[in-house]
Amino acid sequence: MLYLFLEYAYMKHVYLDNAATTQVHPNVIAKMQDALGTYGNPSSTHSFGRTAKTAIESARKTIAKYINAQPSEIIFTSGGTEADNMIIRCAVRDLGVKTIITSRIEHHAVLHTVEELEQKAAIQLLYVDLDVYGNPDLAHLETLLQKDDSKKLVSLMHVNNEIGNKIDLEEITFLSKKYGALVHSDTVQSLGHYNWDVKAFPIDFLAAAAHKFHGPKGIGFAFIRKNSGLSCMISGGSQERGLRAGTESFHNIVGLEEAFIHAYENLEAEKKYVEELKSYFIAQVKSTIPNAKFNGHSGDMDKSTYTLVNVCLPITEDKAMLLLFNLDMKGIACSKGSACQSGSDAGSHVLTQILSAEDMKKPSVRFSFSTYNTKEDIDYTIGVIKDIIEA
């Protein structure tokens, strides 16, 4: 037992699951620790409460500034899942949405929500066709938008969390607006990683989560365009402009603000660094494991996010069953798909839509990067995978 403990203690540890969650930045931790000393309820009118309220409104203004929104358009939530649920459910309830257009490779925060609305609220649910890489067919999207005169909501994620495809959200928004549709995007994998200007194109709703850009878990926000007409999903007090009742998670909001500042003040330098890591990973896979395939557009630096790749590995079925276990035993953290799917034997609903039956029998692994990773991490990981294949 002591031998195993010492072996683990001295093992190289490589974290390549940043699409699931990221390491919290030290500055964020320090800010949150300080914030825990501010214990007033932000809704209280005394000085203790006003101190907390002022900090929350400062965070709201900071986030709004970086995406060129109005502070009143930023609503703090517990994360991306709540933001997606709030927007989609309230659009149906408050805005007269009768038809939702989405794709079959959205995050389950969207898919399970719209499926439930189809069953319980008699919503017409339409899926846009995808090409072989997993990109939405815009001609088919236009056909769906023209289908009837019902009020429509288009919900398509900007960056796919499993295969990294990056869609042209501006083009989709303008196309949807041509037919009077509302537009929502799960931008959990892209806010904090790309520059945004919500005044440049008329998107109605966005969702974000702090833990995807080195902030704390349990906090995120919804961008809800001013005068949208949405009302609260969680009833109670009048917090968050009346759109989300409940005492604000003050320390988490302060942590979100600090993470957002760091992400955007260092965006270009960190983006360049991570792009180089991904490029290096792709090159090493191609040279070391030539029969490997990159799923979706994840192997294309121009058509996918710079933060992740999804690789179909040429491994026999018996080795595939223990692949993630064996990688973990070597100190390598990665994912076979969304972290929300952990423990599920159902397989990836994303890959099911784009891979052949033959490739679905092989293991596909998502590796996702951050500035805390190095080329040495990649060399080690590729070497371990090569050893597993050749064993």
TrEMBL record:
Keyword tRNA-binding: no
Reactions it catalyzes: (sulfur carrier)-H + L-cysteine = (sulfur carrier)-SH + L-alanine
EC number: 2.8.1.7
Keywords: Iron, Iron-sulfur, Metal-binding, Pyridoxal phosphate, Transferase
All copies of domain Aminotransferase class V, residue ranges: 14-380
InterPro entries found in the cross-reference section: Aminotrans_V_dom, Aminotrans_V_PyrdxlP_BS, Cysteine_dSase, PyrdxlP-dep_Trfase, PyrdxlP-dep_Trfase_major, PyrdxlP-dep_Trfase_small
SUPFAM superfamilies per UniProt: PLP-dependent transferases
Protein name: cysteine desulfurase
Organism: Maribacter stanieri
